[in-house]
Amino acid sequence: MADPSWLDKNNITSVRLKTSTGTIEIEQLEAFGVFGQTFLVVLYSLTTFFALTGNTLVILVEIYGRRSARNLQKFLINLAISDLLLGVLVTPFIYTDIMLGRWVFHPLLCPVTQFVQLMSVFVTTYTLTFIGIERYFATLHPLSSANTWLRSHGNLVLQLGWIFGATLASFSIQNTRVVAFKYDSKTYYDCANWVDVAERDMQIYVTLSFVLTFVLPIIFLTISYGAIGRRLMRTQKYWCSYRQTVPFSQHSASRTHSSSSSHNNNVDGNININNNNNNTTTKTSFIRNKSTRKTVKIKLSNSNGLSGGGGGGGGVGCSHIDSNDSTRMNSSTQKSSK
């Protein structure tokens, strides 16, 4: 622990405290006045309150909610736990130290809060990265072995994230401690970081943390969500809106007829729509009917002059299935069977 000399604040705007490895600069003991401290106390109290209640509600909803996404349930709970630790075990102590300009809590809490803060940031970053990677495989490669592995080993991935985050944050424990200093003939304490650490080692740690917690996650998230966005933009013009979805029961006759033939592509639950317009391109898609719990296979069109194109061509439309379409489907099926 440093043994600074006595200080006098007369005509002093900043204080330089000599330690065993360097100096600690203090511009002002208390960073804010009475009004500023009162405002920040209210603000930080609300922040802690909402962090506690909000993340607790997220955990309860994800555990007991019936409509929660099962694939993301573990990741969202992990995020809530990490944010809960940050809001409860870090925010009150760190901001009190900032407002008062000194450490007023137990000396043991100094390295603990620093450790929890770094670990929470690391875990949150890793969890967001894992979510992006999981969404990438679930959206673009749902049948791949990687997606299957992520689904079955989600707990292992999250545990590795906590271990990795705790390992990186553990370096701060041995280098963070309470340092005593004198100001206005009184002894105060400060929670100092990087005590008795060489400048080179500190730079290496900061650079490594920056790469692992910012650069690499940004790269992974940009690639994964960028690929998902491109796929959604490509397929958006081929999908019908919800209002254009037709009940499956309207095509039971056509489905029965098509299933009796062995030379067509119409099987149970699949409907094809023929369009002889040369300017129209079609794409087969599937629509899930909630009432019958069956899937309807339809051909979606992308042609000039359809709705959504602004009247000038190039518009994107979706073939609406009605009674006339059923007649065309029956005739088309008869031709294909011949």
Structure description:
The chain has 338 residues and is α+β, with helices and mostly antiparallel strands. It has two domains: 15-133 and 154-196, Rhopdopsin 7-helix transmembrane proteins, CATH 1.20.1070.10; 243-337, no CATH class. 53% of the residues lie in helices and 12% in strands. It has nine helices and six strands; from the N terminus they run E-E-H-H-H-H-H-H-E-E-H-H-E-E-H. It has helices spanning 34-64, 70-89, 91-100, 109-140, 145-152, 154-170, 199-236, 252-259, 323-337, and strands at residues 15-18, 23-26, 177-183, 186-192, 280-289, 294-303. The strands form three sheets. The chain has a two-stranded antiparallel sheet with strand order 1-2. A two-stranded antiparallel ribbon has the order 3-4. Strand 5 and strand 6 (294-303) form a beta hairpin. Helix 1 runs antiparallel to helix 2 and helix 4 runs parallel beside helix 7. The longest helix has 38 residues, at 199-236. Residues 1-27, 240-283 and 299-338 have low confidence and may be disordered.
Task: From the structure above, extract its key features.
two-stranded antiparallel ribbon; disordered C terminus; alpha+beta; about 350 residues; globular; Rhopdopsin 7-helix transmembrane proteins; 2 domains
Give the strand order, joined by hyphens, for the main sheet.
Answer: 1-2
Q: Name the overall outline.
A: globular
Name of the CATH class of the largest domain: Mainly Alpha
Average of pLDDT: 70
Tell me the CATH architecture of the largest domain. Up-down Bundle
Radius of gyration: 31 Å
H and E order:
EEHHHHHHEEHHEEH
Q: How much helix is in the residues? A: 40-55%
- For CATH, the homologous superfamily of the largest domain is named as Rhodopsin 7-helix transmembrane proteins
- Strand-pairing-aware structural class: alpha+beta
Q: Would you tell me which CATH topology of the largest domain applies?
A: Rhopdopsin 7-helix transmembrane proteins
Can you count the beta strands?
6
Straight-line distance between termini = 94 Å
Fraction in beta strands: 5-15%
Which spans have pLDDT < 50 for at least 5 consecutive residues?
1-27, 240-283, 299-338
Largest sheet: 2 strands, antiparallel
The domain tally reads: 2
Q: Treating each run of at least 4 consecutive H or I residues as one helix, how many helices?
A: 9
